[in-house]
Amino acid sequence: MSYPKQVYFGDRGEINAHFLPADTATNVGGPGDEMRIRYLATSDITHGEFGLYRVMLGAKAGGPQTHFHRTISESFFILSGTVRLFNGEKWVDAREGDFLLVPQGGLHAFRNDSDGPAEMLLLFTPGAPREEFFEQMSEMRDATDAERAKFFDRHDQYFVD
User: What pTM, to 2 d.p., does this model score?
Assistant: First the structure.
């Protein structure tokens, strides 16, 4: 294993850091919603290297059914509360500091079954345009089966029974 190919060729460095204050509003969902998402580092900002999102789940919040991705890995880092994670084999109660890495093709799911809120970081690598996926998911409830299938295919989201 070696370092990736060089992408910066300057001699003095640049001022190009991205700072996001803690009180920045969520990008998806608002107060009282079952799930809220705050974009920390989108693939646009990271030049496709990764996408990092803070997910805030209300008590008894649902989550996606078991699924896999063909092009991206997904990692979960629990910040607070208890998040129920499916690791492809069984459901585990993940708590603060717990981490789950799901490589491409790995079955996974998450939800909050607890009586309290929970927060986690989601990391997608390489970066993918997940923002559109998060923002349009609620619209899929009213979509036809064909529209839903096209949407999930476009966003590398493959559900299993």
Answer: 0.93
